[in-house]
Write a structure and sequence with these properties.
By secondary structure, this protein is an alpha+beta fold. The chain has a domain of 118 residues: Jelly Rolls (Sandwich). The chain is globular, with a radius of gyration of 18 Å.
Length: 190
C-alpha cells in the first residue's frame, strides 16, 4: 500500500483513523509496463486496481478491434465491475496505457478488509458511486450530443487526460475512426 492510497482514503473518509500499517497487508503494489494486460476477457476477475502513477484503460474486443470504454488515471480505481462482485469470467480487459504503478486488492482481501475495518466500506462506496455516476453521465452524453461536441467537451473538461491518450485509443473510446478524430482535432485547433 502506498502513502498516496492511504491519503486518498483519508481524503474521502476524514474520520478514518486506522494506521496505514494495519491495512497495508491487504494490498499489493507493483509496476506495469505500457500495454501490459492486467485482466483479459474470460479470465476470472478478482482484483481491483488503484492507479498511483500512470493510466489504465478498460476495453473489450469486437471484430479484432479494441473498444475502449473507460480510463483510470492517478487516484482512480478500475476493474471489471460487472464480474468482480461474483468472481465470474471478465467481460472486459484492462491494460496499462502507459508505464504505471498500481496498488491492487484481491476479492478475498477486499472482503476480509471490509469485515475487519467496516469504515472502509464507506470509502469504497464513494468510489463505486463516482464510477457509476461517470458511466451514466457518459452514456447520457453519448446519447444527447454529437461526437464532435463530445470531443470538444472531453478536451475542455479533461485537457491533461486527452494529452496522454494515444489517438487510436481515444478514437475507440469515442466510437469513431482515427481519421474522424483527426478531423475533430483540426477543427478544435482552428
Amino acid at each position: 500500500m502506498t502513502e498516496q492510497l492511504y491519503h486518498h482514503i483519508q481524503k474521502l473518509v476524514p474520520n478514518f483513523r486506522i494506521q496505514q500499517q494495519d491495512i497495508a497487508p491487504f494490498f499489493q503494489t507493483k509496476s506495469v509496463k505500457k500495454e501490459e494486460l492486467l485482466l483479459t476477457e474470460n479470465e476470472i476477475c478478482d482484483t481491483i486496481y488503484f492507479v498511483n502513477k500512470g493510466c489504465l484503460y478498460l476495453f473489450y474486443e469486437n471484430n479484432n478491434e479494441k473498444q475502449v470504454i473507460h480510463f483510470a488515471l492517478e487516484n482512480w480505481w478500475i476493474t471489471d465491475y460487472k464480474t468482480f462482485s461474483d468472481t465470474k469470467p471478465a467481460v472486459y480487459a484492462i491494460a496499462a496505457m502507459e508505464d504505471s504503478e498500481i496498488t491492487c486488492i484481491s476479492r478475498q482481501n477486499y472482503e476480509a478488509l471490509l469485515l475487519q475495518y467496516p469504515l472502509l466500506a464507506l470509502y469504497f462506496n464513494k468510489i463505486h458511486e463516482r464510477a457509476y455516476g461517470a458511466a451514466l453521465y457518459k452514456q447520457k452524453t453519448f446519447a444527447t450530443v454529437s461526437k464532435e461536441d463530445f470531443y470538444r467537451y472531453f478536451r475542455t473538461t479533461y485537457p491533461e487526460l486527452i494529452r496522454r491518450i494515444p489517438d487510436a485509443i481515444f478514437a475507440s473510446y469515442m466510437g469513431v475512426s482515427p481519421e474522424t478524430l483527426k478531423t475533430y482535432q483540426d477543427l478544435y485547433l482552428s
